[in-house]
């Protein structure tokens, strides 16, 4: 190659070419970096690691570093420096990064219903599963009245009374599925199946309750896993609601009481102004939607607004049934509204009935739903508040105009309207005589059929408050007549939330019927007595079939894969060999005199499987057909009656076998001649697990620590220990990959370190975690509680998160687990190895348990 086609060597950190000023220094791992960059990297050293270590910028391996001498004590790379001086300095930014890892295959298991974006947006709004204490059955099927009310009484742990609004449902009848999603996973799967409009509406309600003090709190989302799997919006309920006050209104005969009513009316106006400022239009309100906070201010219960809207939709849809509403059916709707003490504007009712706008004059009325819609409702509520029990039933006669036929004469409609106005004026006459004529006048204007002719809420507020100056209480006051005619604002009654309840209930009834039908069908079963079903309905379209590999006579201790075989060891002192093509038993290796505790496959010129037992015996088995009866080689550690032999094995790429033993030592054996190279001392108890990654050996021990060892010279690099002294919990399994270390403990906790810093310490199991496996972002944990917990690790170092995706229930304690190329193997204490296959697909895409 010509010199001009080559590039000068450069520092992997600063990308500067080596010269007399940028001197390359050689690290113990063999890589080089410039002297100044190594000094700077050591200054940024993690406080959890010894000062005598440094992470190589090229291979990220922890290596020994001269301290306090610094990088000047490292040898110069004379050859690299001499070679770089032959070239002119090149532009380092044009050189590709040779250390960029190649894309890795996405792991196909487990199927996931939600995206990372959905989880990130909603994780903080999911209430814990135990956050709600029930007071009775939440999911009663015999709802009184209109039947679709989704608000029942219960309490949060903080003793806060709350109500519920159904927003979704998780299908709980899929009891035959392999993967049982976690509580958070079930909530996320429900959210992911929602359309964007519904999710945005829920998000808006959560936001407005968080920002606005006049809106009762919406605490978040809670899934009732014990009943029919409904996902609820949990809303604050206040005891001092307006509908519980008994007598509505203070009586217009008493001027002082009337003044008090008007002052409360100001509060009602301010509540609607707050909602309008957030872009919401109610469209339908009842007296039960309002309550008083601890300071006596009027607030709106969003949950009750949604329930009233759902009741209204249920009545309209039940009466209409897809055809034109006649006079009798119109009367039925009006009666139901009267019973609920609820008010709905004419334009909203027209929208629900899918009717064209009704003309009341030559030019026709504009019945578009907008902020003026709530003004009509506000007037009804205020009149009801001011007149109390004298509020006439004729109030609802105005709604009869909505149901008039379009070809009727305009004069007849005007007569109906004028009669209704006279009734309202007669009801408010005592209020006009008392000096509140302007209030009566503006309330009548609010009841105009055309929303564009109604005043703004801020105008009603000014009139009642007695203010004639501009009051910039919110952005609603800046709306002009043109904007009122537009369909602005998000109408709750016409939104997706109020249209969800009936569909959810119907789906629940259908699912319950199908489940009862399935219970009556005979159970055909399969090998291992596990039925065939979808892994996750709507995500995985393939069927899964469960098999059980039987052959061992005692607890499974270890699993490994290689040479087209699955190897399994057991307390029965044998190693079974299984074909990965059809999972049939191929051979049994016998010869150990003690329990076989660990396995490892070595893919050399002559592939071998190495096993180690509790007596210190190490056996090497040649993997060539036909499989031999006798081991290729066997040797022993020094026996000591005080210790329990070998517990873990690991093999490095340079031909070294590492054993973790009960004598607290890690021994390095040269596979070429099976001689002992060295012993690594540091742990204070049994070395229970070993892992290798990037030239570093990771060892976990019953002493609760994870130690790091350099494979170059077998020197200690770092120690990761318990956070709190005196709370030692044995490390039973370790996984290492790139810059991440995961340790599983006897107390059911896992700890995750990234770049030598502890990022997570979480408890997932109720007992010891005996087995840990990981592939891509999926983490599998199994142990004493007979359950495989599936976690997803998302995000990088700054925002890493561990999501509990779900669990796989087994019938015995899980003692061994292995994940290879998207295939998960699990060994149990009941002598069985379970295999779950996706029928009709290749092994590399199947799921094995």
TrEMBL record:
SMART domains on file: RING (SM00184), S_TKc (SM00220), WD40 (SM00320)
InterPro entries xrefs: Kinase-like_dom_sf, Prot_kinase_dom, WD40/YVTN_repeat-like_dom_sf, WD40_repeat_dom_sf, WD40_rpt, WDR86-like, Znf-RING_euk, Znf_RING
Ranges for the WD repeats: 549-588, 680-719
UniProt keyword annotation of Ubl conjugation present: no
Record bears the keyword Iron: no
Superkingdom classification of source: Eukaryota
Record key words, sorted: Metal-binding, WD repeat, Zinc, Zinc-finger
Residue ranges occupied by any RING-type domain in the UniProt entry: 11-60
Protein's UniProt name: RING-type domain-containing protein
Species annotation: Beta vulgaris subsp. vulgaris
């Amino acid at each position: 190659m010509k010199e001009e086609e080559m590039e000068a060597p450069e520092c992997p950190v600063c990308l500067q070419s080596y010269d007399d000023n940028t001197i390359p220094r050689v690290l113990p791992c063999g890589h080089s970096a410039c002297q100044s960059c190594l000094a700077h990297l050591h200054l940024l050293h993690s406080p959890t690691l010894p000062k005598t270590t440094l992470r190589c910028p090229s291979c990220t391996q922890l290596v020994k570093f001269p301290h306090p001498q610094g990088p000047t004590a490292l040898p110069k790379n004379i050859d690299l420096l001499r070679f770089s001086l032959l070239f002119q300095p090149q532009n380092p930014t044009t050189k590709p990064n040779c250390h960029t890892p190649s894309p890795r295959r996405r792991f196909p298991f487990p199927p996931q219903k939600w995206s990372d974006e959905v989880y990130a947006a909603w994780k903080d709004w999911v209430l814990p599963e135990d956050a709600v204490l029930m007071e009775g059955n939440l999911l009663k099927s015999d709802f009184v009245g209109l039947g679709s009310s989704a608000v029942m009484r219960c309490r949060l742990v903080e003793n806060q009374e709350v109500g519920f609004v159904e927003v979704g449902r998780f299908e709980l009848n899929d009891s035959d599925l392999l993967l049982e999603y976690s509580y958070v996973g079930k909530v996320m799967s429900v959210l992911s199946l929602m359309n964007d409009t519904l999710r945005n509406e829920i998000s808006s309600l959560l936001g407005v309750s968080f920002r606005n003090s006049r809106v009762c709190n919406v605490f978040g989302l809670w899934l009732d896993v014990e009943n029919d799997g409904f996902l609820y919006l949990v809303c604050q309920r206040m005891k001092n609601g307006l509908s519980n006050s008994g007598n509505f209104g203070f009586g217009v005969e008493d001027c002082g009481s009337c003044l008090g009513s008007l002052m409360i009316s100001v509060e009602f106006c301010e509540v609607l102004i707050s909602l309008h400022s957030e872009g919401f239009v109610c469209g339908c309100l009842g007296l039960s939607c309002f309550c008083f906070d601890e300071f006596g201010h009027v607030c709106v219960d969003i949950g009750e607004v949604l329930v009233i809207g759902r009741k209204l939709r249920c009545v309209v849809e039940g009466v209409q049934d897809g055809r034109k509403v006649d006079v009798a059916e119109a009367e039925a709707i009006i009666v139901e509204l009267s019973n609920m003490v609820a008010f709905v504007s004419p334009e909203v009712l027209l929208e629900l009935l899918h009717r064209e706008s009704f003309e009341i004059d030559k030019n026709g009325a504009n019945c578009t739903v907008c902020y003026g819609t709530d003004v009509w409702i506000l007037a009804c509520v205020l009149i009801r508040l001011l007149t109390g029990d004298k509020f006439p039933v004729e109030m609802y006669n105005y709604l009869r105009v909505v149901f008039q036929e379009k070809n009727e004469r305009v004069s007849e409609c005007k007569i109906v309207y004028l009669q209704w106005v006279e009734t309202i004026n007669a009801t408010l006459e005592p209020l006009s005589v008392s000096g509140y004529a302007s209030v009566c006048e503006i309330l009548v204007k609010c009841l105009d059929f055309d929303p564009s002719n109604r005043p703004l809420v801020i105008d009603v507020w000014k009139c009642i408050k007695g203010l004639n100056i501009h009051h910039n209480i919110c952005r609603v006051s800046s709306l002009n007549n043109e904007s009122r005619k537009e369909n602005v604002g998000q109408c709750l009654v016409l939104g997706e939330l109020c249209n969800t309840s009936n569909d959810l209930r119907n789906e629940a009834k259908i699912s319950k019927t199908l489940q009862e039908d399935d219970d009556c069908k005979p159970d055909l079963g399969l090998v291992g007595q596990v039925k065939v079903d979808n892994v996750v309905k709507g995500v995985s379209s393939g069927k899964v079939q469960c098999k059980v590999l039987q052959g061992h006579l005692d607890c499974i201790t270890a699993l490994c894969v290689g040479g087209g075989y699955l190897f399994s060891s057991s307390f029965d002192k044998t190693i079974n060999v299984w074909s990965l093509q059809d999972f049939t038993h191929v051979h049994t290796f016998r010869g150990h005199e003690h329990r076989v505790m660990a396995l490892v496959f070595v893919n050399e010129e002559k592939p071998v499987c190495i096993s180690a037992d509790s007596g210190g015996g190490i056996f090497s088995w040649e993997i060539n057909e036909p499989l031999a009866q006798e081991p290729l080689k066997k040797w022993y550690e020094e026996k000591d009656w005080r210790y329990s032999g070998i517990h873990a094995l690991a093999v490095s790429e340079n031909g070294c076998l590492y054993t973790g033993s009960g004598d607290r030592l890690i021994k390095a054996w040269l596979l070429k001649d099976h001689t002992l190279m060295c012993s690594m001392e540091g742990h204070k108890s049994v070395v229970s697990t070993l892992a290798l990654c990037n030239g570093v050996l990771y060892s976990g021990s019953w002493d609760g620590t994870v130690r790091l060892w350099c494979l170059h010279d077998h020197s200690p690099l770092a120690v990761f220990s318990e956070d709190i002294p005196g709370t030692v919990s044995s490390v039973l399994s370790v996984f290492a990959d790139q810059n991440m270390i995961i340790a599983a403990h006897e107390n059911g906790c896992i700890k995750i370190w990234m770049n030598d810093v502890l990022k997570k310490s979480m408890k997932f199991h109720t007992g010891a975690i005996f087995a840990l496996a990981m592939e891509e972002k999926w983490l599998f944990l199994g142990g004493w509680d007979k359950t495989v917990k599936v976690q997803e690790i998302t995000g990088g170092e700054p925002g890493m998160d561990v999501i509990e995706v779900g669990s796989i229930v087994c019938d015995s304690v899980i003692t061994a687990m292995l994940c290879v190329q998207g295939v998960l193997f699990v060994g149990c204490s009941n002598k069985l190895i379970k295999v779950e296959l996706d029928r009709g697909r290749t092994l590399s895409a199947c799921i094995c348990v």
